[in-house]
Design goal:
By secondary structure, this protein is an alpha+beta fold. It contains five helices and 14 strands.
Length: 234
Amino acid sequence: MIKDAINKILELAGPKTIAVGDFQYAERDLVPIISPIPDPLIVNTLTGLFGYVVVLAKGDVGQDSIFIHVYSPILVNVEGALNKEGQRNIYLTARHELPTFPFGQWLDTEDFIVKTQTMFVPSDDLDNIVKIVGNMKEESVKTVVDDGVSQEVTTRTGVASVEEVEVKRFLNLKPYRTFLEVEQPLSSFIIRLRQPGPTVALFEADGGRWRLECIDNIKNWLQYHLGDTVTIIA
């Protein structure tokens, strides 16, 4: 009982400071009381962010107190300066939330065709691979020379006839991976086909360079529409 009472008194006494050279230390941890910051507004397009920035810059906040941070291909923030407590207010967040192609996953031919038709910008390379995959026979995939450059598959050309078609390893495609207002970057992909199934997979092959191009495209779009209204960091 006496020990508990002493500990309680020590707790109520509060922390003490200790000087060591030119520095002051507290004998216990101190946690600052920080004013709450409201959650940011959420939009899903750059157009929504653009409209908000125009209104915000003309209001009480002012254009000198805000900036745009292009954080990633799918995330852009409208932020303010640091306050006296070291916090930064995020006024609005734009998030690209449309579904993206499952790269690196093996898909059956039907699922592959549907996803490529709806999640990529139309192109000749895309049309060619969809045509080949759509005509593959159940037992068609075979590796002729697995040198990492090409595969050969058997596709239907008529009711009973088949032909062997070479599938190039690298394809240049534009999947939807960032906001639809900007140009989708052209990237290299590796396509592989295998049994059983057959199944098909696309693997990214540009080392993530597309991310930098997306960020640059977003910055250019914002600069074109906003001009010198606000600083853009990317």
